[in-house]
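Sequence and structure are kept together here, with a separate record for every protein. An example record follows, reproduced without changes.
>
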Amino acid sequence: GKFNASFGRVNRNLGSYSSNSLILSDNPYSFDHLWLQYKNDLFSFSFLSAKLEDKYGFDVRTKDSLSYGWYKRFYSLHRLDINVFENLKVALTEAVIYGGKNQQWLSYYQNPFIPFYISKNNERSSTDEGEANIYLALDIWYKPVKSVTLFTQIFIDDIDFKSENREKFPERKAIFGSLTLTDLVLPLSQLGVAATWVENWTYNSFYTWANYNIHERSIGYPFNSFQKFELFFDYFGIQPMIISGKVSYSEKGDNSLNNPFMATFEPFPMGVVEKIINLEAKGSYFFSSVFIGDILLSYCKIQNEQHIKGMDGSQFYLVLNLKYQMY
């Protein structure tokens, strides 16, 4: 097996390479963290630990102002990837955000081998500030035949096994799924369809400092109260380039990852819904294994722009990006 340890700012996307992961994506700005990983032919186990930025927040359940203030925030993650068969892989990921006005590092959330749900229920009664949110994700990658790949990721926000709470509060889940066909249109190409579904209150918490974000950007998928359907195409026949195209339709509800979890049952997506048609073309050039250049052309047609009913608009943008990975 091989062991790897690193510390620094690195973007990570634990899931499909073509979409933002639901549990840890490259959507937020890179942040300092410790990364440990053991890997062999059968499985890999990864552990991440980070101090997030302090945040001014409050608990929406309280009736006074005592909960308002600056909160220290911490983040840890476990991930186990298992190669079940040559054509079947599964991964289980758990993450935790914990904190408080005077919170310090908690050793039991730094233990790579004890599940966070067990630590939260067994240990938090002995701490002064024991608020914590646990998040789970299950990935399944399956290749029934050589030219067909199925992938799904299921995310559960702050899992609660008590039936009375599940009936009282709306669930906070997210699901991503994709079907990819290889060499169907051209040799060295792939064509696929994908769907994303993020419930209204996913990533929101009663105590706003525990919302699943860092520097106002989601740690997981960029939005909640959101659904998207897309058709994508990638061509790998002009090395060292990848040429990609995408057509998508999405609906985005009027919610924010900075809002508190209000525990209300709303239509999905909630509020005045943005309806977006998006066309994208992208070229990526690999100067080396650590130096990559991207050019992206995108056009969006938006109905109810900025969640204002009847206000329609469109956007066109060009993005140039150079990425250099330091190991």
User: Anything to note?
Assistant: The CA atoms of residues 111 and 229 lie 39 Å apart. The two ends are 20 Å apart (CA to CA). The mean pLDDT is 90.
